[in-house]
Amino acid sequence: MTLRRTSAAISPTAHYTGYVWARHGVGPAGLATRTGAVLYNALRPAMAASAGAGGPTLEGLLLGRHRAMDQLLSEAIDSGRVGQVVEIAAGLSPRGHQYAAAYGERLTYVEADLPGMARLKREALERVGGPGSTTHHVVDFDALATEGPQSLDAVMAGLDPTVGTAVITEGLLNYLPTEAVTGLWSRLATQLSRFPAGLYLSDLHLAGENSSTVLSAFSTLLGAFVRGRIHFHFADAAAAEGALLEAGFREARLHRPDAERFDLPPHLRAGARLVRVVDARI
């Protein structure tokens, strides 16, 4: 079976999330696109209706997971454990630009995505003043490639093996079948074991936390939005953590983005409860 995450299937979420981040002041406004604004306004009535009924919104989901992942990544960098970051399926995320600007030459930051999206990201970065440092790069990449110049092995081979390294996959896993996810996790664990410290951060939706009628309808809407099926790979956090350990990670924990430590505003918490943040370490 051929498994490919095509640009056509996933690019709507890249535009939408880029607009949401810019709208909420997360990163430069220049990373938002006109397509993102159109998509945001198209979904706005449905999101307003959900919020009015006390239900989840895509903004809560997106901002909740992003804030939690940023906090965990910053803690790892500030502690000295991590000095290199690879963000897979980076899309129009502002994280690379922000972290490169904040840490400068102390941090190597590689954004990786399919060629079409990588090209769009390079153009967007040029609009906002280019990369935040000379160690900030955008590369062509296929998360499902097991060999070749766009594979994980090729990207990781370009990093310094003496420096702790983090890999991020935000907004990717739930568009992939389970076997593709566990295969990616195994390759990540193998690659991160080459470094003095390895950290993997991701978002993940659990079947047991998305099973109500309302949440099923919400997931159906999201699937239609991205033109593909949304996959729930694991029933609960324990099952996901077990799969991460089986893949080769030595520690694995799933955080709730609405937890007190991440200080998420109350109006975003219903959306944030739909997702967990993976924190796996070598």
From TrEMBL:
EC number(s) stated in the UniProt entry for this protein: 2.1.1.-
Question: Is Cell inner membrane among the key words of this record?
Answer: no
Organism superkingdom? Bacteria
Q: Which InterPro entries match?
A: Ppm1/Ppm2/Tcmp, SAM-dependent_MTases_sf
Q: What is this protein called?
A: Class I SAM-dependent methyltransferase
Name the Pfam families on file.
Answer: LCM
Name the GO terms of the biological process aspect.
Answer: methylation
> Which keywords does this chain's UniProt record carry?
Methyltransferase, Transferase
According to the UniProt entry, its GO molecular function terms are: methyltransferase activity
